[in-house]
Amino acid sequence: MTDMKDDVGRIEWRIRVDDNGSSDQVLAPESGPVNGFRRALKCLIANKFILGLWMFLEKVWHLGNDDPRKVIHCLKVGIALSLVSLFYYMRPLYDGVGGTAMWAVMTVVVVFEYTVGATISKCLNRATGTCLAGLLALGIHWVASKSGDKFEPIITGASLFVLASAATFSRFIPAVKKRFDYGAMIFILTFSLVSVSGYRVEKLFDMAKQRSSTIIIGTSLCILTSMLVFPIWAGQELHCLITRNMEKLAKSLECCVAEYFDDGEKTTNDSVKNLLAYKCVLNSKATEESMANFARWEPAHGNFNFQHPWNQYLKIGASMRDCAYCIEALKSCIPHKNQASKSMKKHLSDICHKVNSISSFILRELAINLETKKKSSNMSISIEEMNTSVQELKNYLKSLPGLVLTPRSTATSETIISSERDHKTEPLILTSNNSIPLVEVIPLVTFASLLIEIPARIEAIVDAVEELANKAEFKLAPDDKPKQNEQNIKNVTEQLNLHEKTMKTLESV
């Protein structure tokens, strides 16, 4: 018999022997550094486990809070499995499908996907592959059974070899792999199971019928649950992805130009995040192709018809990646911004910011047009204004070689270059005393040349969006601001006049 006694903060153990002896021995409590280290280690392990569990639960909470649709998808899977499990729990349903009701449960687990298009794609592929393979296997089994016991295994094995090889080869065909890869795999699996088991199993037709019916039941429940309970459409996801990527391109372009001409050293986390936002565009190709493929399987929903041009979104995405590559090259110039001449940077800052602001405005305008599915009547004016500012920047760059390389004979000789700032002319005077070395001009010319290339990439995006608008029959946006449009036209006219004056000044120089 063992007792534990607590005496003034100490724990001691007493052992008594009642029947066989009168021994009464007290065991001294363990003490020393070993016991203290063991208690500290236990507390550390317990605290670390609790802290890890708390951090895990916090991450799970943030994941569900950021995108509640993921939680909804989990609930939809639970609903589908609960409904299909009734074929086991309810005796009349179980007697109707036989012992193959587990195939319906397996079907729900395998084919239920996040979006409606992905679920419909896998369901139709699985149902079609199963039914087609089952019919072929039954037909070949009937022919083989009529050929006698000697030729039956030969015919079955030869058909398995030929059809399995042909179905496997079809998975290498791009068109088949893109949309029917899962169906080809299910065809091989079902045909192999039915043809091989049919050699030993009697009543093969009943078994194939039950399996096909349970798979059809499982796929039907998946499609209905996915479409009726808070549906998540792949087409809508693709549409929103392209819109978000356009806004990210505009943010990256603005931050890139602002960072290059900003002499301060302070950078915030938001500015760094916006500067690197273009990387999402570069990494979205696989996602766009997958969503476009699944969107073709979806029925008409919302503002998207059954024949909606989903392939056009891939063209828009490709044009956006071309622009993102150019922005990435533009960003690589930022670490070398201190090598450029400060006076030339100050001189070209206004025109570069102007090209940047107009280009970013066009990208945001395209994003709004896609989001609202409207055609903008002001897009042509914005593009004309962007091309005007680009041409002005080109004219400045053309004048740089003469300013840098042409020698000046006297200290009084000077060159005047006009720069636009708030529609006013502010001259930059370069004399022989303050001529700029070529090594300080090259970084700035490189940056400006890349900035000139971005509007050309943006025009390709504009063309792709306009083609989508024509194919999808976007409506023309109502013109609620006619005075603003007239003012924009007036501003473009003034800029063209100023551009002509600048050209005359450069020619006179």
TrEMBL record:
A Pfam family of this chain: ALMT
Record's subcellular location: Membrane
A GO cellular-component term linked to this record: membrane
Membrane topology: Multi-pass membrane protein
Domain of life according to the entry: Eukaryota
One GO term (biological process): monoatomic ion transmembrane transport
Assigned protein family: Belongs to the aromatic acid exporter (TC 2.A.85) family.
PANTHER family tied to this protein: ALUMINUM-ACTIVATED MALATE TRANSPORTER 10 (PTHR31086)
Name under which the protein is recorded: Aluminum-activated malate transporter 10-like
